[in-house]
Design goal:
Pfam families: Phosphodiest (PF01663), PIGO_PIGG (PF19316). By secondary structure, this protein is α/β, with parallel strands linked by helices. The strands form three sheets. Strands 4-3-5-1-6-7-2-8 form an eight-stranded mixed beta sheet. Strands 11-14-12-13 form a four-stranded mixed beta sheet, with helices on both faces. The relative contact order is 0.09.
């Protein structure tokens, strides 16, 4: 019978795994990508040469590169109003935008708005999914590497022989192995560090840029993102950090501008440097990110360099307010930079060239660049729908005479038709000069916009059919488990066939039902604690109503009061995080009292750790624990049975426990085992004490709490000698001590 039940349990588990597989398949939709790397042999025929009867119409080169060198300054979580807003401290960048010497955009990122997926999008032009958000957490993960995926850095390194350096967030090193010549990576997960993490990058800016042996240099700053996580976008630290970033923009751009003047004076064939300031994602009203809200997805592009000029309508005092609403897809960076540097566009790119950056080119050059971009995107359309046929030169030539109607067909056919219509307009303009270059541009962008929308929706959407199938299978497995439990429980299971009623209390059933309903909430992840706050108080209130004595009711009411204080101590989540709480009150008005409470908490933790000490006595049996309960000690029934033959000794130990009011561990482990347990107990107390002390020193040093308590600087310097000098090392030490305390605590039980 037991063997049969075990087989049924295994079968139910397998069914649940199948359901989970279906759900995962729907939640992480399959995205068909084109293997390999783009080459110049993948480029389309040149319509201008074909129209003039040229023989070399296939694989014509892209327009010559406009820039030689590239500086990318990526400021993590740089929201658009941090640069374009009235409260921004980035005055130099704003002045460059107002004068027309820089071109800016609000760059629209797609969820998940975390670093790794956004870097993938910025360098490949693709639409990453939520699996990349999971991999973003694993610092040692290498499965997300883009080593074998076409990307902009690979194109610059292999088609233009660029020397590429990177300084900052080490996510770049995991994504692009074997690409960089010189690097200095910093970890992004020490969120409390808002200073050193940026100094480690800034110390490379001037020395590296002045070396002159580089072609592409990337600086990735994390401090602004860390400030957002710690204190939100309205933190007093935010404007100084913006000013720090603005100063780096000014210094770096002035260095490369002077170098360009000298390089181009010595070598007339040399080209200038393009400087790009951008963010990978933004942050919401409390400084977090990862979702799809307007604040989290609104970051920036700012382009500076010789030849970069804003259109006349994008200058003046109101340019910044317009830039807050001038949105472009973030993935548009990839084809824009590829065309400006004369390298092939990565094969799986879904972005479109930014027209403002191509405005200085002549008509024929600009249309050729748009043709190359449209050709690459049409390749992605064909890869995801094999029924879509290539558009030949002859077919495009045959469509020159009359306008092509693309209405009333399937999505893939509509995209092919729009692409063919753009080629026909381009050929018509090249052959006879009919139409205008602006008309051809609109046709190309019409195709690319529709292709981008269709492919982005296909790549980032969910397969709801597979998800609901998986949920149905998991539900069926859960129902089978209930039936098995009902059949195997001697007491009648969770459902009584005699009374036709559930054997589950009404509050428990209500909790389960309301929790299942809350799962469908869009704010479950951010606000789930609110659910448990409510139900904990509800259960305590029911306990008061069902108490049999006044003492029990009074103790429960006291617990409710303490729980309410805990609830009001610190507002968490997202929706109500800005509401007043006890922590804010203490920090703003009674900071000294707050630090006294912190010290008292550390002392209470150490007293509690000391009182958890167990006295160990040798004995004939394995163990019995006599624990203090209220004011009296009680022996476990099983322990009493085990020591029936030694009742006198057992009673004596219990009497000692009554007198000392501590727990007694009666062990037959012998003298050696006794010593090991006693040493472990001492290790536990020592490690807990040092870990809590180190954590206290870390917080008081970082927030200057020692000043609030009136500790002299000399005395505090002596205290700091007891822990590592580096705050990051203190944090690691606290984590290590906590792990050791847990291990020692387990060994003591």
């Amino acid at each position: 019978m037991q063997g049969r039940r075990l087989c049924v349990l295994v079968a139910i588990l397998l069914v649940e795994l199948v359901g989970l597989g279906y759900f995962i398949k729907g939640f992480f939709p399959y995205k068909k990508s084109i293997p390999g790397f783009a080459t110049r042999q993948d480029l389309p025929w040149d319509i201008k040469q074909a129209a003039s009867g040229g023989s070399s119409v296939m694989n014509a080169p892209v327009v010559a590169a406009r820039y030689d060198r590239l500086v990318i300054m990526l400021v993590d979580a740089l929201r658009n109003d941090f640069v374009f807003g009235n409260n921004s401290a980035m005055t130099y960048t704003q002045e460059m935008l107002r004068s027309g010497n820089a071109v800016g955009f609000t760059a629209k990122a797609l969820a998940p708005t975390v670093t790794m997926p956004r870097l993938k999008a910025l360098m490949t032009g693709t639409v990453p999914n939520f699996l990349d958000a999971v991999l973003n957490i694993a610092e040692s993960d290498t499965s997300s590497s883009l080593k074998y995926h076409d990307n902009l850095l690979w194109q610059l390194k292999n088609h233009s022989n660029k020397t590429i350096n990177m300084f900052g967030d080490d996510t770049w090193l995991r994504l692009f192995p074997d690409v960089f010549t010189r690097t200095d990576g910093t970890s992004s997960f020490f969120v409390a560090d808002t200073v050193e993490v940026d100094r480690n990058v800034t110390r490379h800016v001037r020395p590296e840029l002045e070396r002159g042996d580089w072609d592409v240099t990337i600086f990735h700053y994390l401090g602004l993102d860390h400030i957002g996580h710690l204190a939100g976008p309205n933190s007093p630290l935010m404007r100084p950090k913006q000013k720090e970033m603005d100063d780096i923009v000014r210094d770096a751009f002035e260095i490369v501008s002077k170098q360009d003047m000298e390089r181009m004076r010595r070598d007339p064939s040399a080209k200038p440097t393009l400087f790009v300031l951008l963010g990978d994602h933004a942050m919401n009203e409390i400084g977090n990110h990862g979702g799809n809200s307007q604040l989290e997805t609104s970051t920036v592009f700012v382009f500076l360099g010789q030849g970069i000029r804003s259109p006349s309508l994008a200058k003046g005092s109101d340019v910044l307010s317009r830039l807050l609403t001038t949105e472009v897809p973030q993935i548009n960076l990839v084809p824009t930079l590829a065309l400006l540097f004369g390298v092939p566009i990565p094969k799986n790119n879904l972005g479109m060239p930014l027209p403002e950056l191509l405005a200085s080119y002549g008509d024929s050059e600009r249309l050729r660049m748009l043709q190359v971009s449209a050709h690459q995107m049409f390749g992605v359309v064909r890869a995801n729908d094999p029924d879509v046929r290539e558009v030949t030169l002859a077919e495009a030539a045959g469509s020159v005479g009359a306008p092509v109607n693309c209405e009333g067909e399937s999505t893939s056919d509509v995209l092919r038709c729009k692409y063919k219509r753009a080629l026909a307009a381009h050929r018509r303009f090249a052959v006879s000069g009919r139409g205008s270059a602006g008309r051809v541009e609109r046709e190309y962008y019409d195709f690319m916009v529709h292709a981008n929308e269709h492919l982005s929706r296909a790549f980032s959407g969910y397969d709801l059919g597979a998800m609901f199938t998986g949920m149905a299978i998991i539900g069926a497995a859960a129902a089978a488990l209930v039936v098995l439990c009902q059949a195997s429980d001697r007491s009648g299971g969770i459902f009584s066939t005699k009374t036709w009623g559930l054997r589950v209390s009404i509050p428990t059933a209500a909790l389960l039902v309301t929790y299942l309903i809350s799962i469908w909430s869009s704010s479950l992840i951010e606000e789930e604690h609110q659910f448990w706050y409510f139900w904990t108080q509800t259960m305590l209130a029911l306990r008061v109503l069902t108490s049999t004595t006044a003492g029990d009711a009074l103790r429960t009411v006291l617990q409710m009061g303490l729980f309410r204080i805990i609830r009001a101590w610190n507002q968490t989540g997202q929706k109500w995080t800005g509401e007043p709480d006890i922590r804010l009150y203490l920090n703003s008005s009674h900071s000294g009292l707050m630090w006294i409470l912190v010290v008292a908490t550390v002392l209470a933790v150490n007293v509690a750790a000391h009182r958890l000490h167990m006295y160990v006595y040798p004995g004939p049996c394995r163990s019995v624990i006599v624990r203090r309960g209220g004011g009296r000690s009680s022996a476990h029934a099983a322990g009493a049975m085990a020591y029936r033959r030694d009742a006198e000794e057992y009673g004596r130990r219990v009497a000692e426990a009554e007198q000392t009011r501590v727990a007694v561990l009666y062990s037959g482990a012998g003298t050696a085992g006794l010593r090991v347990l006693m040493v472990t107990q001492r290790v536990f107390r020592a490690v807990v004490g040092y870990a809590s002390f180190s954590a206290l020193v870390y917080q008081m040093d970082r927030n200057h709490g020692w000043r609030e308590l009136g500790v002299s600087e000399g005395l505090w310097s002596l205290v700091r000698l007891s822990v590592p000098s580096d705050q990051a090392q203190i944090a690691r030490l606290v984590y290590l001590c906590t792990a050791l305390a847990l291990a020692a605590g387990v060994a003591c039980t």
